[in-house]
Design a protein that fits this description.
Layout lengths: L1 H8 L5 H18 L10 H24 L11 H21 L7 H29 L6 H37 L20 H7 L15 H14 L2 H23 L16 H12 L3 E9 L8 H15 L4 E5 L1 H12 L6 H14 L7 E3 L5 E11 L4 H14 L4 E4 L3 H32 L3 H24 L6 H27 L5 H28 L7 H32 L6
Antiparallel strand pairs: 1-4, 1-5, 2-4, 3-4
Helix pairs in contact: 2-3, 2-4, 2-18, 3-4, 3-6, 4-5, 4-6, 4-18, 5-6, 5-15, 5-17, 6-17, 8-18, 9-16, 14-15, 15-16, 15-17, 16-17, 16-19, 17-18, 17-19, 18-19
Length: 588
């Protein structure tokens, strides 16, 4: 039971990390929404956005636990994920609010904010949630549980963002409309009389806005995207360089995919400082030639005293021993036969066999647990053991033993507690490919319905496939194998890759500019900074997991880091360039 006990210790190891993460994300959200203007600052909106994601996690987990849905260890990663997604939507809504007219009423400003932000965050929520719900079709229970908990929590996150967070933005808008201080709520002037100290000017004024556009003054980072990054990215030379970078990225990714390993090392299920790891290390050092002893159960009553029946059983045992990674067999009936021959006993008929078996078991009690008898002394079932070799071929050995058991005319079943982990080797690739393909098709349908341009919808799907290939390839180069844990992250990568590319693609399509370069620049100026904010908040949401003592949570961080990094690269670099080259058509 040590493996199971240590496995159950893993969720407790990240409780403290979640507290640290929440503190980091709250701080980042507030700081990134902080303005030098004491009226226009969005401190309270940022705080409410984090609270909304916290409520979403509580609601999602509470609902599923209330209806009796099992909570498995992989679901402990959900709060870190949902936190990043919820904050991303908040940044989009704040960005849209800041582009509304300051002179308009709060209902008008909020209506325009929802008009611009609702489709964008609806697309990303739909894709994130559906990608996770599609993960429930897999045969892995741990993956299904994670996808269910994360998917329901994301739905609650969307609900709270368009209700609770919207209400908070309305209240904050009323405060702004009356030119009240963000902290004291007292009315303050836009400018102080001359002669006041610098500190007074910083702390006691606010409410400025762009007199030409009537909008709030844009942030420093938004101006960088508008005036510097956008023109730079749409330059011909830069586009050529981006093309070369993408080809190199794709080449490295494809190479990594060819080196991807499959399966989960069971020693990784325990914490790094667990005593069970020392056991595995010692076992590997001193007994590396030998591996597990598989149990073979004879599921039905047979005539063990009948020579013809035992010949069939011996043939089956020979089939087991002829396998490449099998050493020998330890069977109670063989030892019993040897003992009977040594003592000159005749056990070729039922009564003598059963009578002498009791005497044999008294002298060899080690075999008592291998025989199940009825009240009348009839052997209902029994078992023997097969010693295996070479721990580098777990799936081949397990599959070979099962095939040999199926071929035997006597009903046999092969079992070992580790088979539940080795089974991943046989189905993980097929399950992952099937789930990803179904998810990509569903994402295409959603994009075609919600983005008013078939070409741009295809580019969103292209970004999904490109990010999946990149994450898979670099995952292999970062010593992460394809198992149920990394499979969860690959499913999530679909949603996140849509998040970044969909925001930019939708803004590109919605632009009224005829020039494709100006449309790309406008999309980047509007959503470039919110995308960066969302990416940073998601990375900060999972960065604490990199310090976890559990391989499972460290793997979650690694793959999430790759997903966010490549998602941002596609959203802010590859997709804008490709849209300017291939996204311009009449249907746009």
């Amino acid at each position: 039971m040590s493996r199971q006990w240590e496995f159950e210790e893993s969720p407790d190891s990240v409780i403290s990390l979640f507290s640290i993460t929440y503190t980091i994300v709250i701080t980042f959200s507030i700081v990134s929404c902080l303005r030098m203007d004491n009226v226009r600052t969005k401190v309270w909106v940022a705080t409410c956005g984090v609270i909304a994601t916290g409520m979403a996690v509580l609601s999602g987990f509470g609902l599923l636990m209330m209806v009796g849905q099992p909570f498995v260890m992989t679901a402990a990663s959900c709060p870190f994920l949902v936190l990043g997604i919820g904050i991303d939507d908040m940044f989009i809504m704040i960005s849209c609010w800041q582009r509304t007219k300051v002179a308009d009423s709060v209902p008008q400003r909020l209506a325009q904010t929802y008009q611009e932000a609702a489709i964008s965050i609806t697309i990303t929520t739909l894709t994130d949630a559906l990608a996770l719900f599609l993960g429930c079709i897999t045969t892995f229970g741990s993956v299904r549980s994670f996808c269910l908990y994360a998917g329901i929590s994301i739905c609650f996150c969307y609900l709270y963002n368009i209700t609770f967070l919207g209400a908070c933005m309305a209240l904050n808008g009323q405060r702004e409309g009356k030119n009240r201080h963000w902290f004291t709520c007292r009315k303050i002037p836009e400018d102080l009389p001359d002669g006041k100290s610098k500190a007074s000017q910083i702390c006691c004024i606010g409410g400025r806005f762009d007199q030409l556009t009537g909008n709030e003054e844009s942030e420093f980072m938004s101006r960088i995207f508008e005036k510097n990054y956008g023109p730079f990215l749409t330059h011909k030379v830069t586009k050529s360089i981006v093309g070369v970078i993408y080809v190199a990225y794709l080449a490295v990714s494809v190479y990594g995919c060819t080196t991807l390993q499959e399966g989960l090392d069971i020693s990784n299920l325990a914490l790094d400082d667990s005593y069970i790891n020392k056991y595995y290390d010692d076992e590997s050092l001193h007994f590396s030639e030998y591996y597990y002893s598989a149990m073979v159960v004879i599921k039905e009553p047979i005539a063990y005293w009948d020579k013809e029946v035992m010949k069939k059983l011996d043939t089956c045992i020979a089939d087991f021993e002829n396998l490449t990674h099998v050493n020998n067999t330890l069977a109670w009936f063989n030892y019993y036969q040897e003992a009977a021959n040594g003592m000159g006993l005749n056990i070729s008929y039922e009564e003598a066999y059963q009578t002498n078996l009791i005497r044999f078991l008294n002298f060899s009690p080690i075999f008592r647990e291998d025989i199940n008898t009825s009240a009348a002394g009839v052997i209902q079932a029994s078992r023997f053991f097969i010693q295996t070799l070479n721990r580098n071929s777990e799936d081949d050995t397990m599959t070979g033993l099962r095939k040999a058991a199926e071929k035997c005319p006597i009903g046999l079943m092969v079992y070992h507690p580790s088979f539940i982990y080795f089974d991943q080797y046989t189905v993980i690739v097929g399950n992952t490919i099937q789930t990803l393909l179904v998810a990509v098709v569903v994402m295409l349908v959603i994009a075609l319905v919600l983005i008013p341009s078939p070409i741009c919808s295809l580019w969103v799907v292209f970004a999904i496939c490109s990010v999946i290939v990149g994450v898979t390839g670099f995952m292999a180069l970062w010593d992460v194998s394809l198992d149920s844990i990394s499979m969860i992250n690959l499913i999530m990568s679909i949603g996140f890759s849509v998040d970044f590319s969909a925001h930019i693609s939708y803004a590109f399509v919605s632009s009224n500019n005829a020039d494709v370069n100006k449309r790309a620049m406008e999309a980047l100026s509007q959503l470039g900074y919110p995308v960066v904010q969302g990416a940073l908040s998601t990375i900060l949401g999972v960065v604490a997991l990199s310090f976890s003592k559990s391989y499972i949570f460290r793997t979650f961080f690694k793959v999430m880091f790759l997903v966010i990094t490549f998602g941002v690269c596609h959203g802010l670099m590859f997709i804008p360039v490709f849209l300017t080259l291939f996204g311009a058509c009449k249907c746009c």
